[in-house]
Design brief:
The chain has ten helices and 15 strands. By secondary structure, the chain is of the alpha/beta class. The strands form three sheets. The chain has a six-stranded antiparallel beta sheet, with helices on one face. A six-stranded mixed beta sheet has the order 8-12-13-3-14-15, sandwiched between helices. α4 crosses α5. One of its GO terms (biological process) is double-strand break repair. Pfam families: SMC_N. GO terms for molecular function: ATP binding; single-stranded DNA binding.
């Protein structure tokens, strides 16, 4: 899978951009602020319909315009597919695939797959649990686009349950009517939480060996990297532990949604008094985390800056390999995007990362200057200046 052409209309700083692309590595070179990241952000958005820079779509639309359009021509093995996403901040986004309109933009997910490396990936290791939960959820959607609405549904139910707890406290006490309503929302919560947890635990299990392998490749086997999913539910219901725990293994081998729903229900029952006292939901997938380790120590708080970088890169490479393992055909191989990453790495890690990229059919890299790109990386160089691009004849960065 690779992009053969990218078109932007009123996206970020670009009123109009046409960029031909090819298999192999393309390096976008230009000073900071000229729009390189806007281009790779557009590619990522075309694949995931999410931005790694903002949580709302409005900033993606060029100032003064009503909507933005991202269009890509995707080579998927033996056929070309044109996918377009129209971003409308004031109404629902729209998508079109080969001139066929989709009523919901997310129906176009899966046409293009991508994995994005950015300097902010350090937060995957040293940041808050929400960053790591989103990492898992995003990979779930790339693997199974039909799961895209799952997180939103859980968030909706969580807001409703918390609103009930807060309103009961504000009214002066928890009545029988409140209890009855909470029973209903507990049922909805468990039903929404179960598939979210099942998918996260499953993806964590897929990631774990690839993280260990990728970290070893990037660091020449300096330390062993580990990944496991931790859920607050285990503390309340005394079940569904980490990925390497026996109950979690049983759940993965027999993905019984009724069982997982019952486990969440038990956890809610056990935490009810505390939830009422604090007026918030204290257990569930919104409180879970991905535990990363190096050697015998947790990575967060103990890893050096270099180790943190290597582990963050290993997480992204592991996600790429999970997608490859899911569908090893060229038609499903993700596009790899590295936004200003080489500038943050020493020469050893640069060369290790280049070697790890060998399985990618298409890689798009951004750099402020050509000297940031490792020696020997064959690439098409695209010079980026404000509002325009120019492809060099040179093929070595």
């Amino acid at each position: 899978m690779y992009l053969t052409h990218l078109s932007l209309h009123d996206f970020r700083t670009y009123q109009h951009l046409e960029l031909p692309l090819s298999p192999g590595t393309t390096v976008l070179v230009g000073p900071n602020g000229v729009g390189k990241t806007n281009i790779v952000e557009a590619i990522g958005y075309l694949a995931t319909q999410d931005s790694h820079r903002v949580s709302q779509d409005a900033p993606l639309v060029r100032f003064g315009a009503e909507r933005a359009l991202i269009a890509g021509q995707v080579n998927r093995g033996d056929r070309l597919t044109r996918v377009e996403v129209e971003i409308n901040p004031r109404r629902r986004n729209r998508a079109r695939v080969n001139r066929a309109d989709f009523s919901r933009a997310r129906e176009a997910l899966g046409i293009l797959r991508s994995i994005l490396f950015v300097p902010e990936d350090l937060e995957l290791v040293k940041g808050e649990p929400e960053v790591r939960r989103r990492f898992l959820d995003d990979l779930v959607v790339q693997l199974r686009p039909d799961q895209a609405a799952m997180r939103n549904e859980f968030d909706r139910v969580l807001r409703q349950r918390n609103a009930l707890l807060k309103s009961a406290r504000a009214s002066g006490g928890f009545t029988e009517a409140h209890e009855a309503t909470l029973d209903v929302w507990d049922m909805h919560f468990a039903q929404a939480a179960a598939p979210l947890m099942r998918n996260r635990i499953h993806v964590a299990k897929l990631l774990a060996p690839h993280v260990a392998q990728a970290y070893s490749e990037l660091t020449n086997g300096a330390k062993a990297a580990t990944l496991r999913y931790f859920t607050t539910v285990v503390d309340e219901a005394e079940t569904l532990g980490s990925v390497d725990g026996p109950v979690a293994e049983q759940t993965l081998l027999t993905p019984d949604m009724v069982h997982i729903t019952d486990v969440v229900s038990q956890a809610l029952e056990a935490s009810r008094a505390r939830d009422i006292e604090r007026a918030t939901t204290t257990v569930g997938p919104h409180r879970d985390d991905v535990m990363l380790g190096l050697g015998s120590a947790p990575a967060k708080g103990f890893a050096s800056h270099g180790e943190t970088w290597s582990l963050a890169l290993a997480l992204r490479l592991a996600a790429f390999r999970v997608l490859m393992e899911d569908d090893p055909s060229d038609a499903a191989r993700p596009v790899l995007i590295l936004d200003d990453v080489f500038a943050e790495l020493d020469e050893f890690r640069r060369q290790r990362l280049v070697a790890a990229l060998a399985d990618a059919e298409q890689v798009v890299v951004t750099a402020a200057v050509g000297s940031e790109i490792p020696q020997g990386l064959d690439a098409t160089v695209v010079r980026v200046s404000p509002g325009e691009v120019m492809i060099d004849d040179a093929t070595n960065a």
